Amino acid sequence: MTRVNGLLLYPVGHVSIDDLVEARILIEEAFNERLPVYIATAKTNPPMHLIDWNRIQYNAEEVTLWIAERVRTILSSNILVVGICGCDAYVRGLNFVFGLAVPNLGVGTVYTKRLETRDHGVFVSRLAKEVVHETGHLLGLGHCGSKDCVMSFSNSIVDVDRKNYRFCDNCWRKIERILEN
Ligand SMILES: [Zn+2]
Ligand SMILES: [Zn+2]
Question: Which end is more exposed in the chain, N or C (fewer Cβ atoms within 10 Å of the end residue's Cβ)?
């Protein structure tokens, strides 16, 4: 992988920029301030044709590809992109996903619908965890067996709440090596 210069949070649909500004602090902390995080402010609406009307959910793969098309110049400067989408989504074989990463594109997505809660702090922390998790995948990491590591797989919101927004020591060593390149 060529040198990674940063991470862009790209809001899609009903997403609060203020929430992203708060989550950004946790995300930069998780990467020990080694990965600058930027926020795109121009909000884009998700295209209706990417909705599966039988499920009333977006197709996560298609949304991720659609975002990749729109951020080509950003990707060419070696900045990873995670779309923050104010909707619910699925991939084939799963009822829903919290997020998806396509490492060979450098683009991931996080879906906020199932992260919502009345507790604002909990919501921001869930959002940060999912962004850090998908960014970990974009940097080449797989899932981690350590249950509190941000790279552990989340089957449900309970799993998301249990894990930390940071990497375990083992995963962090890998991230550090990748970011040093
Ligand atoms: Zn994952
Ligand atoms: Zn780990």
Answer: C
